[in-house]
């Protein structure tokens, strides 16, 4: 099947995404995307330390509503997010080039390397036990408000997903959210993504089926600064 932008998905539906778990009749945003494992990769980097944090008042502004979106995004209830997961600039020594994305699932962070020993750090949700993976990849394509289609395997496991067999249009209830970065290796879609989550309580937890979610406002920021072909390094948990 082809994706909305004309790229053939790797046996996983219109957007190439595998399925989330569902509650009784409702699409849950707390589990996401099963995919094939990728090879382990190495990355040499030193520890990181906070340089400038964000107060609750600042967080309420940064994570406020985004009314200009195609589907207006509501404000995040920042009281449901541990402040250590608010976006911030941190000291981060890495051999990777500026712009590289580094995912640290063990600590629930995603970094964008800025160079000169710094990075922008975002809080994230990551794969739960049994769905963790690590390795090197790259952003093969990007999408705003992408269509999500559950694979046949998910529909078999969770029949309530069958109503989306022909695709769930983009929107606030769509599991992929406002922005999606699709991860590739050697020209092939890995079935893993970095996506926008509207569930603040998921940040800092392992709840997905392997993919990585950022708060919508953080994902919009990262997406805007991440071109196709950007390198992505996922560290072992």
Question: Would you write up a description of this structure?
Answer:
This protein starts with 21 loop residues before the first strand and ends with a strand. With 237 residues, the chain is mainly beta. The protein has helices spanning 56-62, 152-157, 216-224, and strands at 22-23, 26-27, 45-52, 88-94, 101-104, 109-115, 118-123, 126-127, 135-144, 179-185, 188-197, 206-208, 212-215, 231-234. The longest helix has 9 residues, at 216-224. It has three helices and 14 strands. The strands form three sheets. Strands 3-4-7-6-5-14-9-10-11-13 form a ten-stranded mixed β-sheet. A two-stranded antiparallel sheet has the order 1-2. The protein has a two-stranded parallel ribbon with strand order 8-12. 9% of the residues lie in helices and 32% in strands.
